[in-house]
Design goal:
The structure holds two protein chains of two kinds. By secondary structure, chain A is α+β, with helices and mostly antiparallel strands. Chain A is built from five helices and five strands; from the N terminus they run ββαβββαααα. The N and C termini of chain A lie far apart (44 Å).
Chain lengths: 154, 359
């Protein structure tokens, strides 16, 4: 069965079984590296992408439920050569150790900044709560998001 | 105790470890294969007086290669696990070679190209590989100066290296590939010397200075940065079916039914070890291993479909989702046949709805 959905601005007709979690479509069918498999249970946030305007655990979202919706992964925000504002802030603050959680962190933060361009640090912390970083890079992650939130990264 | 004696001691210990490992791990390997490696999987000690991993891999061109066009490749047997060692090892080599980040190709942990340095673990990377690269790159730099001096017929002490070029006192210059041609037969394919002439730390440009990590841009933009990002032709995915508790014995498993599932290549059972090999990563996650009663397991079945907790629809459901959280397991009890039990892990309750718009 084919599911049509928009991924990073392009319409894709996905062939996968509708029960397939979006993550596998992104990683295996579309070969996008951004969203990561962490726990596969919606407990870590490494797979976070933005669906329409909300952060979503792509490891739990069956692709069949996303027909007609718009999915964005970290690849949509910029490239290594031309990083987006939030990505550039993460690079500036060296806000990654192993970096496995970071694409998910960035997408969750991006969803907040699109809804509220100037969140307080408390709002940032609340928003980022579902995403885990085992290395302990939290302070740098918050500093990077705060940079964009306060306009310091511009 | 002198350094030399310490090294002799560590050599003896390695031999001891090697014998220990012969018993445990790899006793099927022929004795000849053993002669090459110690228990850490390292090549045997070639010269205990050499610094760092040069002890095991003394040839300079195992670490630093200079192509005829002057391009430099730096190799390490250690891999980037997110600690920034790729950047740190580059800083060390670039410092001695008078090069800038971006001037070299760095290869880390490629079994076909780099020295075998065993595991990347235990905070050994800078101590072992960093020390080897420090000395190897300093010695290569000295050889490049010597090569350039030989071609110009001048004293090597008058030749300096800067930004990838050997410079003569009179302003002449040549790139490293040309300087290499001035060296006698083995070129860089020679064993490291036991001592090196190192740059004066007072003039360091890179070591001890903050350098942005080279691996971060790919990690924040979805570049290929992890082993999971490698996609090889015909690649299969394997998954081990875990027992519900330590010591559980596999008593029954419907292997034929799993083998018949689309995308499954092979089901491996070896005693209580059970693994499924499939061509699709998702397919392999959905071959459910149901925990049997008590310590006995397991029944392998297709996933059942529990109802959505918010609307009358039935969810599209992956087995892994069912295994989240005690509350989730309780909620799904109606949907799971009573003769099976779930592996219940602690954690947040599952997002247990059907993911359709508005639900």
């Amino acid at each position: 069965m084919t599911t049509k959905l928009t991924i990073n601005g392009r319409l894709h007709a996905v062939q996968a079984d509708p029960a397939t979690p979006l993550l596998y479509v992104l990683r295996n069918e579309l070969q996008l590296n951004g969203a990561k498999f962490g726990c596969g249970m919606g407990q870590c946030g490494a797979c976070t992408v933005i669906v329409d305007d909300k952060p979503v655990f792509s490891c739990l979202a069956p692709v069949g439920a996303l027909a007609g919706r718009s999915v964005r992964t970290v690849e949509a925000l910029g490239s290594a050569a031309l990083p987006g504002k939030l990505q550039a802030a993460f690079i500036k603050h060296q806000a990654a150790q192993c970096g496995y959680c970071i694409a998910g962190m960035i997408m969750r933060a991006q969803a907040l900044l699109e809804r509220n361009p100037h969140p307080t640090e408390a709002q940032i912390r609340t928003q980022m709560e579902p995403n885990l970083c085992r290395c302990g890079t939290h302070h740098r992650i918050i500093a990077a998001i705060s940079d964009v939130a306060t306009g310091a990264a511009a | 105790m002198s350094d030399f004696n310490k090294d002799k001691f560590s050599g003896a210990r390695r031999v001891l470890l090697k014998r220990g490992a012969l018993v445990f791990g790899f006793s099927l390997l022929p004795a000849a294969a053993w002669a090459e490696f110690n228990a850490m999987g390292l090549p045997k000690l070639a010269n205990p007086r050499l610094p760092g991993s040069l002890k095991n891999t003394p040839l300079l061109d195992a670490w630093i290669r200079v192509a005829p066009d002057g391009k430099v490749t730096v190799c390490s047997g250690k891999v980037e696990l997110g600690t920034g060692v790729r950047t740190a090892l580059m800083q060390i080599a670039l410092e001695q070679l008078e090069l800038a980040p971006g001037d070299i190709r760095f290869v880390g942990g490629d079994t076909g190209l780099t020295p075998n340095e065993g595991f990347t673990a235990g905070s050994h990377t800078i101590a072992d590989s960093g020390t080897a690269l420090l000395h190897a790159s300093a010695q290569v730099a000295a050889l490049l100066r010597q090569g350039a001096a030989a071609r110009w017929r001048v004293d090597p002490a008058t030749v300096t290296l800067r930004a990838g070029r050997a410079l003569g006192a009179d302003g002449r210059g040549m790139h490293y590939g040309e300087a290499l041609k001035g060296l006698t037969a083995p070129g860089l394919h020679r064993a490291a010397a036991e001592t090196s002439v190192l740059r004066d730390p007072a003039h360091y440009r890179l070591i001890g200075k903050p350098v942005p990590r080279v691996d971060i841009p790919a990690k924040v933009t979805g570049g290929a940065a992890y082993v999971q990002d490698m996609r090889l032709p015909g690649m299969l995915h394997a998954r081990v079916v875990r027992p519900p508790r330590p010591g559980a014995t596999l008593t029954a498993a419907d292997l034929a039914a799993v083998r018949a599932m689309p995308g499954v290549h092979q089901v491996v059972r070896d005693g209580s070890y059970l693994a499924v090999l499939a061509d699709d990563e998702c397919a392999i996650r959905r071959r459910p291993a149901r925990a049997g009663r008590a310590a006995r397991y397991c029944r392998v079945r297709t996933p059942s479909t529990p109802p959505c907790s918010r609307c009358p629809r039935r969810t599209s459901w992956c087995w892994s989702v069912a295994n989240q959280g005690r509350r989730a397991a309780a909620a799904s009890a109606r949907a799971i046949p009573s003769n099976t039990s779930c592996t219940v892990r602690s954690g947040r309750p599952a997002r247990w709805h059907c993911w359709r718009r508005g639900c």
